[in-house]
Amino acid sequence: MTTSPLHIIQLETEADVGLLTQAVRECCLENRFDRVDTEEMVLGCSEIGHNAVRHGGGGSAKIYKLKYGKVIRVIISDDGPGIINFDLASRQGYSTVKTSLGLGLESTQRLVDNFKLDSKVGQGTTVILEKYRPLTVDNVAYGLVSIPDNNYNYNGDQYILKEYDGDSILIGVVDGPGQGYDAHSIAQTCKQFVENNYRKPLTEIMTALNTLMKESIDDVGITCSLARITPGEISYIGLGDTHVYLSLDGNDDISLTNQEGRIGYVRKVKTQLYNSEFQNTARIILCTDGIKTIHDMIEDENPQALANKLFDQYHRTFGDATIIIAGYNNVKSYGN
Known about the structure:
- By secondary structure, the chain is α+β, with helices and mostly antiparallel strands.
- The protein has 7 helices and 15 strands.
- The strands form 3 sheets. A 5-stranded antiparallel β-sheet has the order 1-2-3-5-4, with helices on one face.
- The longest helix has 20 residues, at 35-54.
């Protein structure tokens, strides 16, 4: 089904950009975006709107409300000359628009949750900007404990927590090689890579991580678990000695088995290990090897309290240790 835009604004003058930012601000606030997220979206649309007027000779902006207001999408198009030097235009702070904030495309991308640009020389430019409303505690609650080895200042474990589309999350743990700064640095790089590619299939992300580590100077490799939860569905992939426990619709926890080996030192990453649907609730617990195998699950409805109790009972004396929990409730949304 095609969604009709809430507003279509012709961008011919800078005053029209003001009409665009006013409409974007009102749309975000009406759909319960907080002030910070709202103003970030307004700033991003202002920068791109000014570009359309000053460089594209004018254009149009369409504002959409998607997923019952969980996603605000703005599409700004012009029929101008296109972006000739994309690298220069993407440089942080670069802008030839005297009345703009001088944000540039690179900074504008960081203001929004999803940014897509299509520009053809002589044919014009189209930019899509999206902002996602953060999930509420009715949708998802988290628990996290991540502690470095007592002998090191840096944590070789990293966790991944990416919310998107107003109803979905990507959660994971990365266990770097050994302890200390080197392990921390490698794990942090892998975390950033996953977060930058969060929409890709889990097998594709893990395969790319394996290639990334093969090309690095590391001679140990990392271990990693990734899980994606969308309304009514959960998928998981893991490689190495991280361990995972899953509960769907209140049923007993399932212990998922990872592919053996370490990322960077396996010939091929196996396809996604687990995929399942659920009706109402899903709870997933991800642990690095600094947490012992959990045999008796402690009952606690609060994920943070559960993470604290499991960590106290099962963490090892030495080594980095991380446990992260996501409790997801498949809340139905109504409206249009």
